[in-house]
């Protein structure tokens, strides 16, 4: 049976800035855009168009936001509205997907649970605000889903510092197999001059440059360690590092329960901390981390753990300190401390820290994006960190900094040189005693 094509008006007219995006022929795309430019709607419609035109059996396309709730709040209403006129299209509210009569499908996902995408295949995917994704989401889960069908990928977002999205943008600007589009608010005309002038009054220059002028040089707003890490990059302290033989290895752990566990591997070289490796995983037992550390050659003089690792677990009756000890590690508890004291300790030691650029990539991204929680109603940053994928690496760094503070040697007192007599400066009390002695000499002399 031959199906007769039907022309359906979906009510979407692309803004002229996105016409070239819809007409692209490259497999990979990167769109860096100012806020309120309409990038989310444009990309959703691109997915719908691709799902309807795809000639492969059972086409599958996906839109991925940083959080599942965000995908529902931002994209789901648009997707339902623009696909409602399509005859035979069915919207599945429970799974945030729309199925089309040709067997095609567009589904929404959240990168906060990117493992949910394992096992599926994709013909195309849009990653919205990938700067907020866990660094493993694209290379380890999403990218492999495109392989067998030769699927395409589009990265869209607003700058948030020099993170993974920045590196994608740098590749897209120079590589021949990428489509690249950059939309600055002072060039597109989408937002009025009056609106831009008002935004400049309300925001700091850095915030305005990031949100409206597509600047990757502004630090992430609310980031705890952004300036220190930017200085480390400028100073060349993020590069290839080798283990210094003859000096001990240490590790610092953040132990998750049904969550990610993060480990930093480091050495102390004089007054410097050389961070050699970063390991993170989830839903695996402690034995997995011990095996991984041993496989990488990171036997340690001490494994620094959070204070609550001493409590016994209901399932085993053992504390994690005891479990790691039985697995051959050398657990040491970090002194209990306030969260803000630990964050300040990291800030104080970052100027003397060196990082291996390749092995610490994910951990560095955690530190760059670790930031204060933002109160949308009050429009202020709260006095506590935002808990997301960055928290585990940042917490492990906090234990590393606190451990270093306890380990660092006390400053040595200067020793007098042989044959040289040194006199201590006189105090006021010394002068008073000398005056009294002189008076007594005069009295009895």
Summarize this, please?
The chain is of the alpha/beta class and 445 residues long. It folds into two domains: 16-213, 3-Layer(aba) Sandwich (Rossmann fold), CATH 3.40.50.300; 229-407, Nucleotidyltransferase, domain 5. It has helices at residues 16-22, 39-53, 68-83, 137-142, 164-174, 185-188, 193-202, 205-213, 226-234, 286-295, 320-326, 339-349, 361-369, 391-407, 428-444, and strands at 28-33, 60-65, 90-92, 97-99, 105-110, 124-128, 152-157, 178-183, 238-239, 250-254, 260-269, 272-282, 302-305, 331-333, 353-356, 372-375, 380-385.
Topology:
Blueprint: H1 16-22, E1 28-33, H2 39-53, E2 60-65, H3 68-83, E3 90-92, E4 97-99, E5 105-110, E6 124-128, H4 137-142, E7 152-157, H5 164-174, E8 178-183, H6 185-188, H7 193-202, H8 205-213, H9 226-234, E9 238-239, E10 250-254, E11 260-269, E12 272-282, H10 286-295, E13 302-305, H11 320-326, E14 331-333, H12 339-349, E15 353-356, H13 361-369, E16 372-375, E17 380-385, H14 391-407, H15 428-444
Helix pairs in contact: 2-3, 12-14, 13-14
């Amino acid at each position: 049976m031959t199906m007769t094509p039907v022309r359906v008006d979906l009510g979407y007219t692309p803004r002229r800035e996105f016409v070239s995006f819809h007409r692209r022929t490259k497999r990979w795309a990167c769109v860096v855009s100012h806020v309120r430019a309409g990038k989310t709607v444009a990309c959703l419609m691109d997915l719908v168009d691709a799902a309807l035109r795809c000639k492969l059996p059972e086409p599958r396309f996906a839109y991925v936001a940083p959080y599942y709730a965000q995908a529902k709040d931002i994209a789901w209403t648009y997707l339902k509205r623009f696909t409602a006129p399509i005859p035979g299209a069915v919207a599945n509210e429970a799974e945030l997907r729309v199925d089309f009569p040709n067997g095609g499908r567009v589904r929404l996902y959240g990168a906060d649970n990117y493992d949910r995408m394992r096992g599926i295949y994709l013909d195309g995917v849009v990653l919205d605000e990938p700067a907020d994704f866990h660094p493993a989401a694209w290379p380890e889960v999403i990218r492999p889903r495109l392989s067998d069908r030769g699927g395409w990928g589009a990265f869209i977002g607003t700058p948030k510092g020099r993170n993974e999205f920045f590196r994608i943008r740098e590749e897209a600007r120079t590589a021949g197999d990428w489509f690249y589009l950059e939309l600055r608010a002072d060039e597109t005309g989408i937002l009025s001059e009056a609106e831009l002038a008002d935004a400049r009054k309300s925001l700091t220059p850095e915030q305005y440059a990031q949100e409206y002028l597509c600047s990757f040089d502004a630090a992430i707003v609310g980031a705890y360690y952004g300036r220190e890490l930017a200085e480390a990059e400028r100073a060349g302290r993020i590069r290839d590092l080798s283990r210094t033989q003859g000096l001990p290895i240490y590790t610092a752990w953040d132990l998750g329960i049904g969550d990610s566990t993060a480990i930093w591997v480091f050495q102390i070289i004089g007054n410097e901390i050389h961070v050699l490796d970063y390991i993170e995983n989830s839903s695996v037992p402690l034995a997995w981390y011990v095996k991984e550390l041993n496989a990488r050659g990171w036997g340690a003089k001490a494994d620094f753990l959070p204070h609550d690792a001493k409590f016994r677990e209901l399932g085993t009756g053992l504390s994690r300190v005891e479990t790691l000890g039985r697995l051959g590690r050398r657990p040491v508890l970090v002194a209990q401390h306030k969260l803000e004291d630990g964050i300040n300790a990291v800030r104080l030691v970052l100027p003397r820290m060196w990082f291996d650029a390749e092995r610490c990539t994910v951990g560095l991204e955690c530190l760059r994006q670790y930031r204060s929680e933002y109160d949308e109603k009050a429009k202020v940053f709260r006095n506590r960190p935002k808990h997301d994928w960055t928290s585990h690496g940042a917490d492990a760094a906090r234990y590393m900094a606190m451990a270093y503070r306890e380990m660092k040697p006390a400053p040595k007192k200067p020793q007098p040189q042989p044959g040289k007599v040194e006199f201590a400066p006189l105090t006021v009390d010394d002068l008073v005693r000398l005056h009294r002695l002189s008076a007594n000499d005069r009295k009895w002399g």
